[in-house]
């Protein structure tokens, strides 16, 4: 079978971390290949599995052969098109990065530090993995990959080097793939990420100003993602966004203001039912309660991790019961 020049395009990349061996990683690469076979232009998919030793410390990053006896992520005799997602486990391997332009799977976050060339420059020593990571994440600053030996043939853009793993993965090539006549699906368009300097410049005081609105609205106003805002909150010791607690306190304060500022006629009816001293004491207690709630609201805004006071929770239950009784009385009328 004649084989002319072929061009490979990355369509899928999944990175797996070992749950047993430290610094052991595997990658699964999917390529859409266009080439000539027997004088005809054909398309097919090629899947490859590689294994690496990745570390941020002194030992260099290395590509090692996938053990023949070890269970593979791409099982022998695999047919069809595999799709992996972040968090998925295959044996002792857990997926930490998943990209698939055909299945519309995009990475949910920037790559871990060990897979980021700005943090781990040793990735330059692994051109196959380095090049595919660059295609997926579009790193803003990428250093040049070390030059190859002059004796080696240059690698064309998008064309993958043949390694011993490619021979093992030949069984995943499918000349008669029913998808072979379909047009290539363009990569998924990813939303631009917030600038690192902008993220670092956001202070606790700025975040505090938006505790009164839901976290999604706050993230849009701050021009950062929700996940980034959550990480910033955890950095400042805020385990949970306090919007609901502050909203509940505002509701209780509003109810007390309504009671204190009630119409004069209703106040006269209440004055007729109880003694004058009890009325003054009740009003004083309500005013005191309002001040306590306002003080607690200020504390929550400064320390969002704190829970509501037990006394406040009990008062909130009493308010809910009073509202329910009032609605029931209206329904009965």
TrEMBL record:
This protein's name: RWP-RK domain-containing protein
GO MF terms, alphabetically ordered: DNA binding; DNA-binding transcription factor activity
Keyword list, A-Z: Coiled coil, DNA-binding, Nucleus, Transcription, Transcription regulation
Ranges of compositional bias, category Acidic residues: 166-178
Region (Disordered): 147-197
Regions annotated as coiled coil: 257-303
Organism: Dichanthelium oligosanthes
Taxon lineage: Eukaryota, Viridiplantae, Streptophyta, Embryophyta, Tracheophyta
Domain RWP-RK: 184-269
The keyword Coiled coil is annotated on this UniProt entry: yes
